Amino acid sequence: MEQQKKKKNHFPFRLNILFFSVFLLFSVLILRLGFVQIVYGENFKRDLDRKEDFTISNPVPRGKIYDRDYKVIVDNIPKKAITFTNEGFSQKEMLATAEKLAKLITKNTDKVTDRNKREFWIMKYPKLAEAKITDNERALYDDKKLTDKDIYKFKLDRITDKELVFTKEELEVLAIYREFNSGYKFTPQIVKNEDVTEKEFAIVSENLQFLPGVDTTTDWERSYVFENTLRSVLGKVTKSDEGLPAEQLDYFLARGYSLNDRIGKSQLELQYEDVLHGTKSKIKNSIDKTGNIIETNVMSVGKKGKDLVLTIDMNLQMAIDKIVEEELWVTKQSPGTKLTDRAYVVLMDPRTGELLTMSGKKIVKNKETGRSEMEDDALGTFTTTYNVGSVVKGATILTGYKTGAISPGTSFDDAGIKIKDTPIKKSYTYLGKLNELDALKKSSNVYMFQTAIRIGKGHYEYDQPLNFSNKNAFEDIRNSFASFGLGARTGIDLPNEQTGLKGQSRLPGYLFDLVIGQYDTYSAMQLAQYASTIANGGYRMQPHVVKEFRETAVESNELGTVAQEIHPTVLNTIDVKKEWMYNVQTGFKKVMQEPGGTAYNFFGKAAYSPAGKTGTAEAFYDGPLRSNYGKEPPPVMNLSLIGYAPSANPEVAMAVLVPWAYEGTIDNRASLRIGQRVLDTYFQMKNQ
């Protein structure tokens, strides 16, 4: 009885201790919760409300390109597009969406690679992929002797060709998933923008709620109103699946471009990328800590790129292109022309430097048909250089004046020049005693040789060695030529201009070749700048193909206001007396308008009073068939012609260049035929 009472007395005491302990624990917990709420509550609230802001820049259509008369040359054609934006989806989610989308559209699978197929197989069959790893390899992986990359490579390599067989439907899913996966997070990626049918566009639009990340929109592509005319100069734009070029990645990223933006990748499109690209729209998205978009705000509306207005007259360009093509085909049918394959014409306003036409044509062989075809090579007017012959003789005469080697009225006998141990160098025929005007008119080589001897301060005796006391004779002549644009950058507003090659030997005979245009090489653009400099009295004008920038118009078929006008730029002036320049201009006029002039038979009756200079240069062939001739390519003749009109107040300057025009001694006069038709056409179209 007493023992039971003792036990009974102890039970309430222990229960009280337990309750008291629980009370203390709850009290500590409440105090701790209160402390956390008071001290850290704001921090935890911020963590719960934390969001991340990021900005998406959406591209806008590029600016248009017009000719000088505001005819559209390059435009944008809208086209339907289906896009995908990765809003933080998992691979499984993207694959599920790709499978749904594949049932609604057809997708070209040509770009699916073997690597894509293997990665797709691993994703579809993860257990089978895991089975391809041996127990030994897993042990090495656990010991960190193999990496995730190693294991993944084993899986890829061990998939058999038999396992990589997919149905057409599966390949379409893969092609779509490939596009999904190639995009950047929260940036729209084009899934399909070629041949999207009305039905596809409509059915995808109707099912967007079941296709997370997918959207339908309007994309654009460049269209060329005049097709292939001037295409090599207009340049190209990257395709939607190309993105930024790797070699210029940092440059464009630093300027706010996205990795999958389309940009101009050559010539005009590249040179004026900053103008044509426009201002992208900016949209700020906010996401919570789980990656869900919780808010979207438009920060700025995009603005289409500015329009370019060119100096080119496209009607004139097409007319000149036709002439060059026709004459090149005719020339190709002449004897000794198996290497002839190209011709170039540049028309330039000598008062402003505006380029009116840049025509280049090249005969190429179609690899599929084996037939000869004509392709645009307007780019070659400033990216390829050749020996041009006697057209440089006007610069030689002015260099002679400047250096004091000759003076107005200086005469020389046209007898050939013979340096000891070298072949005689002479004109195409004996021309008698000549002053500088008739030397230009009849294209005397010997007159230029005598001028070179005096520039070099040499003493000439027939069949004796010739040395120059002026050791800078080559530099003096080249520097003078460069002031006209020969052998120097013209400053054209396009990339990749070539200045030409300079001969390396300094033997006296090569100085003779230099002053008649048979040593250094020049481009058709340089010849046009040189002709313009003579025509305008000594101002070397910078040639330019862009006339002005225009703002985006409210209506798509209207012109916007002028944003910037390209003004004429004088690169340098020729330091000669007006009398000297007038003498060369008179000599050029005699070439075309006076009987006995080398171009008189083609231009003597022209009502527009032309002036100019012909050129023929013996050169070595360096074209696409050069490998057929081993170490000794055959000698060929390059034909050239420069001119301007009217001679009293020139409004147009011309350069014609026909490289490798013929072999042997049969002169086909291609440059003169082209030049005559070009100037005739220019003035006919002007009058119309």
From TrEMBL:
Cellular component terms (Gene Ontology): plasma membrane
Keyword ATP-binding recorded: no
Membrane topology type: Single-pass membrane protein
Keyword Cell membrane part of the UniProt annotation: yes
Pfam short name (any one): PBP_dimer
Catalytic activity, as annotated: Preferential cleavage: (Ac)2-L-Lys-D-Ala-|-D-Ala. Also transpeptidation of peptidyl-alanyl moieties that are N-acyl substituents of D-alanine
Limits of the Penicillin-binding protein transpeptidase domain: 344-664
Stored PANTHER family: PEPTIDOGLYCAN D,D-TRANSPEPTIDASE, PEPTIDOGLYCAN D,D-TRANSPEPTIDASE MRDA
Protein's name in the database: serine-type D-Ala-D-Ala carboxypeptidase
Organism listed in the record: Neobacillus novalis
